[in-house]
Amino acid sequence: MKDKLGLQIICEGDSSLLNQYGVIPVNPKANDKINAAGAEKFVNWIISDETQDLIKSYKIEGHDDQVFYPNAKSK
Fold first, then answer.
1. How far apart are CA 75 and CA 54, in angstroms?
2. How far apart are CA 68 and CA 59, in angstroms?
3. Which residue in 39, 34, 65, 68 sits closest to 51, CA to CA?
4. pLDDT tens digits, residue range 5-36?
5. CA-based Rg of the chain, rounded to a whole angstrom?
6. pTM > 0.85
């Protein structure tokens, strides 16, 4: 939207602006319906180098700015 709104960035790069996402599988002991194997597979997929590269390379159509900055470390 920066091309359309004409706003100026007044604060950038401050660690207090970090909006980190995470993934935590639910404890399978919490409920007998939890798919622990599927959860573990998802966690391993999301933190894999290949998926982290996909996340890093994601762009909004028509823009070159990086949107996400992945920081997961594979097991």
1. 18
2. 9
3. 68
4. 888 888 888 888 888 889 999 999 999 999 99
5. 17
6. no
